[in-house]
Amino acid sequence: MRKHLHSAAKINLGLSIVGRRADGYHLLESLFWPLSFGDSLEISPGSGKVSLTWDESAPFPIFELPDEANNIVSKVLRALPNTKLDFDVCIKKQIPIGGGMGGGSSNVGTLLRYLKSENKLQIPTLNLWSCQFGADIPFFIYDSPAWVSGVGENVLPIKCDSQLIKNLYFLVVLFPFGCETKRIFSTFKELNKPFSAQTHPFQNGTINKNSFETYLKSAKNDLEPMVSELYPDIRRILTKLNDVECLYSGLSGSGSTCFAVFDCLEKLQKTSKDLQGFFRSNNCKSIFAETYTTH
Q: Is 136 a catalytic residue?
């Protein structure tokens, strides 16, 4: 029996670096948001084989995909304890590599969520276990927006007001190149900037239009100024998006994806139309996305 799964991309609505562990890993706080844009997974009977291909509609099918032995999904499957690998996984990619949108972590988290729902996992501390393979993976084990902290292992799923979800639209700007996460964080460490203060904006695990907009008014990405200096193409797009009338615009994670958030589809469509020439001249593409939810 075949099973088709949406492997959502994510964006970071703000990203604060609040400390650094003794082992050098940075501690963060961020509102992670799943998108309707993403990859797709097909689960079928088999023996644990994993294949990756670019979807025909992928914005930038130019990145080299990892092979059977070296992709992150294969590595996680080989490490799963007491799990019978009686299935194959076919992944059709749309998410650009190194875009700060989750990519391979989404593929792993989506697969783990499915296996958990099928009672095929025997891992009591799944968040901690999966985090060793990728800091974003624990978020993707859930299927909702979430407040994420630590190095990514602390995930507080957030219940969203249905009207908020219905009226949120994302203009996502993608590049034919990725940002090296290790380089970004190493440079951040070298700059020796002060850490941001810790916050707890969604302690009750819920969010509505008012609390969402209040959060966005003060949200920022601590990595954005540095990434803008390292990547002039990203700086030009962010500068343009900062002039757009929207709820929030910024960089997702450590880049390279940029985005703007709207509460009106017409505003998004007009902005996209007005900026298409600018996007083309700056070697990037834009897509529309909404919130991904299974509820």
A: yes
